[in-house]
Amino acid sequence: MDILNSLILSLLSPMVLAFILGIVASLIRSDLKIPPEIYAAMTIYLLFAIGLKGGAKLDGVAFSDFMWPLIAALALSLAIPVWSYMLLRKFGKFDGVNAAALAAHYGSVSAVTFGEALAFLEILQVSAEPYVAALLAVMEVPAIIVAIFLVGKATIKAGGGSIREVLRELITSKSIVLLIGGMIIGLLAGKKGAEQVAPLFDAPFRGVLTLFLLEVGLVTGRRLGDLKHAGWRLVVFALIPNPAIELKLLP
């Protein structure tokens, strides 16, 4: 019964309802749009806030306390793309490039989903370990690296790039810089330092996340037609329980 109540509470949260509203708005062809500049600003805010708060929570936590969870997270982020790739190739009948791209998404962790999960846990008054944001940051890179090698050097060269160039762009990407940079700032400033900026990065977090998910819903509604081209196999694969989904939703 508790699980059912939690599910209902999750579906009726402002974040989820905003996502549904975005889908409905797209389906009825509403002129509702969020300017790209605002969308980019919300992305920067959410990523930096997650890193900042995660770093502050690491203040006073010994590395030995989260060493094994870190190793497990890295192992999963390496293994999940491999079996996802194999399933997509054999069951989904996808070509190598598309299978690797989807596998990378399953292996890497969505910062938005992570933020929504944390907000949901706060509603339920369930505390999460202080190092979960650190796990989020380190899991982004390995899955992409595995996907690159799954595609193969020949495919990357055919596109005019190189593995070194792709890895450099990945490591210096906005999401990694904001997450790791924010975490370092939060760790150096400590909990007292984080309290100084809490009015901006703590209380408004759920509100910004709600608007962000509204935009995600708008994009999802516009892309629903792609399911016709992707086929039923992709839908089945998406509905299969996957450790990647569990790790994203249960920090």
Give a description of the structure.
Helix 3 (36-57) crosses helix 12, helix 4 runs antiparallel to helix 5 (96-107) and helix 6 crosses helix 12 (205-223). The chain starts with a helix and ends with a helix. The model is unreliable at 243-251 (pLDDT under 50). The protein has helices at 2-11, 14-27, 36-57, 63-90, 96-107, 111-123, 132-151, 153-158, 163-171, 174-196, 198-201, 205-223, 226-230, 232-239, 243-249. 80% of the residues lie in helices and 0% in strands. It contains 15 helices and no strands. By secondary structure, it is mostly helical. It has one domain: Na+/H+ antiporter like fold. The longest helix has 28 residues, at 63-90.
Key descriptive features of the protein:
single chain; 251 residues; mainly alpha; Na+/H+ antiporter like fold; 15 helices; 0% strand; disordered C terminus
C-alpha geometry: globular
Order of helix and strand elements from N to C terminus:
HHHHHHHHHHHHHHH
User: Do you know the CATH architecture?
Assistant: Up-down Bundle
The level-1 CATH class = Mainly Alpha
Question: How are the secondary structure elements laid out?
Answer:
Blueprint: H1 2-11, H2 14-27, H3 36-57, H4 63-90, H5 96-107, H6 111-123, H7 132-151, H8 153-158, H9 163-171, H10 174-196, H11 198-201, H12 205-223, H13 226-230, H14 232-239, H15 243-249
Helix pairs in contact: 2-12, 3-7, 3-10, 3-12, 4-5, 4-7, 5-7, 6-12, 7-9, 7-10
